[in-house]
Design brief:
255 residues, 3 strands, disordered C terminus, three-stranded antiparallel beta sheet, 65% helix, mainly alpha
């Protein structure tokens, strides 16, 4: 109840009674409300909760209240939002037999999840433009936790990994995203997301072929430099050629 009052600042007695004791009679709900308010006043001290007439309760306006949700009102608050371990409002907090309160929590969660994404997207874009890929990756991952189908965040992650030449990781980001999108929503990624994926695949294949050729040449040099090199015989040279072809077929398992 204190959290609800902190968030809303003022409430009617009827609103609080219906929210927390909706399954009880009006008399029983009012009695429980009086008892709860008495306990809150005992814990908080006099003057924190103020009665407005007989029906309304509010927090003393002289008391300064600082809430973590106020960071949304701050300029450049994105960096503080990014530091939050959990972006979900009252995550895993439940009250038994309080359907009204549960609905309120769910509605606020939806609002703040959208606010998070709306603040993170432009911040991610700015980081990408100045090539601050570490910060951009943090924003993109937070966005996908809140909105798993946000394609701009998926594209940004692929671009970040491509810039780091980690093309296989970029491909994995897309395949996981596309699978979830198809399974949960029944649609495919947008063309621009597919284009970024195809670029990553092309780079991954190119990097794989280059790495394979280098690894194969290094193996051959290692064999040829041994005291009793197997390359001294025709059979040995055939074995090296066969092995090199086999490595080329596999890809580069050592990269």
């Amino acid at each position: 109840m204190l959290l609800y009052l902190l968030f809303n600042e003022s409430c009617s007695r009827d609103e609080l009674a219906a929210l927390f004791w909706e399954e009880q009679s009006e008399e029983g709900a009012r009695r429980n409300l009086r008892n709860s308010l008495y306990k809150l006043r005992t814990l908080l001290g006099d003057g924190v909760l103020v009665t407005m007439g007989k029906e309304y309760i509010k927090l003393d306006p002289e008391i300064e209240i600082v809430r973590d949700t106020d960071v949304f009102l701050m300029d450049n608050g994105e960096k503080y939002l990014l530091q939050m371990e959990n972006c979900c409002f009252l995550d895993k907090f439940h009250l038994k037999n309080c359907v009204g309160f549960e609905k309120w929590v769910s509605s606020i969660q939806n609002v703040y999840e959208k606010l998070f994404v709306d603040r993170f997207l432009p911040a991610m874009k700015k980081c990408m433009e100045r090539e601050d890929y570490t910060a951009a990756e943090g924003y993109a991952r937070k966005i996908l936790l809140l909105d798993p189908y946000q394609e701009r965040a998926c594209c940004a992650l692929m671009q970040i990994y491509a810039a780091r030449r980690d093309y296989n990781k970029a491909v994995l980001v897309y395949t996981g995203f596309a699978e979830n999108l198809k399974k949960d929503v029944g649609v495919e990624p947008e063309p621009r997301t597919k284009d970024q994926y195809e670029k990553s695949c092309s780079c991954a294949n190119g990097a794989g072929r280059k790495g394979t050729a280098l690894s194969t040449a290094a193996i051959c040099r290692l064999w040829q430099s041994s005291p009793r090199s197997i390359s001294d015989t025709a059979a040995g040279r055939r074995r090296i050629s066969a092995f090199s072809a086999e490595v080329l077929a596999w890809g580069n398992p050592w990269s």
